């Protein structure tokens, strides 16, 4: 059984968040980290800067030797705002995609020897070589062989991933498991992503997850202000944490209207002994979770949680889109003679482009 802690925190005020995080993290002995380096990593949508600053203070107050903050997506106003706030407090935010990487062998924990080719997780140049080799082998599928982890993550003693409570079709492949995919430094990651989103190769994501898992100290979910309804109803006033990221993904999935067993990475993760991904195997400690769950179901009414079901439109067409193009999980954004366009057949209506660049994409 895995433990997920949930505490009630009703605002982003410094003292309130710090007290909430201290209560939340009482399941781990932070004092043991005093000579270690800890990387705090997050992705889109980013948690509130107040949560990151409070976490930094708590880690430093408990003697952590070095705290590194990093992300892999700097193309939204939200990230720029966090960058400025952290900088104002003397904290540097690393862009993992612009930094060196270290190669890690993949142990094929999923024990499936034909689930996907081996090349998508290598540098783009190396990927081309591997693609040629796979053609020579008559296209025979091969497993992942190695994964490239950002240097600061690879060299840290521990990693703390932080995500914001959010609804999205992307949540169908697991919040934390999906977020970690974005640290993989290749424009071919979409090969893995779209297959997983369409119900195939979720075990590939778990092979990636296995490369991070041994370093994960715990994960934190910022649910004080969620991003589920786009309205005042998003005030959930909770923070969540667990040393088991699959358990946090299971709890998130239930909150946004799924059964935990409907998230394949959760089911397979449990089978492959990467954590407890099913709600039946999780102990939720803290606030009345059933009450929260019922309130959220009434607010979201399930169908409303995924109401954005349209192909986005490009409302500002210039070369800035080139930096957003590579982040589209399916490669639906492309450049033609008249500028940039969206391929409606490739678009899966996840609205990731709208979320990270509202000045350029809309409905």
Walk me through this protein's architecture.
The protein has 363 residues and is of the alpha/beta class. The protein is built from 13 helices and 14 strands. The protein has helices at 14-24, 49-61, 77-88, 124-136, 151-155, 175-181, 189-197, 202-213, 245-255, 264-271, 289-300, 322-325, 352-356, and strands at 2-8, 37-42, 66-71, 93-95, 101-105, 146-150, 158-166, 219-227, 235-242, 282-286, 313-314, 333-336, 339-342, 361-362. The strands form four sheets. An eight-stranded mixed beta sheet has the order 4-3-2-7-8-9-1-10, with helices on both faces. It has a two-stranded antiparallel sheet with strand order 5-6. It has a two-stranded antiparallel ribbon with strand order 11-14. The radius of gyration is 20 Å and the shape is globular. Mean pLDDT is 76; it is low at 112-124, 137-143 and 301-306.
Top keywords for this entry?
13 helices, 14 strands, 34% helix, two-stranded antiparallel ribbon, alpha/beta, 8-stranded mixed β-sheet, single chain, 363 residues
Write a brief caption for the model.
The chain contains 13 helices and 14 strands. It has 363 residues and is of the alpha/beta class. The chain is globular, with a radius of gyration of 20 Å.
User: Regions with pLDDT < 50 over 5+ consecutive residues?
Assistant: 112-124, 137-143, 301-306
Please identify the structural class as seen in this structure.
Answer: alpha/beta
Principal-axis shape equals globular
Percent of residues in helices: 25-40%
Query: How is the biggest beta sheet arranged?
Result: 8 strands, mixed
Lateral strand order in the biggest sheet: 4-3-2-7-8-9-1-10
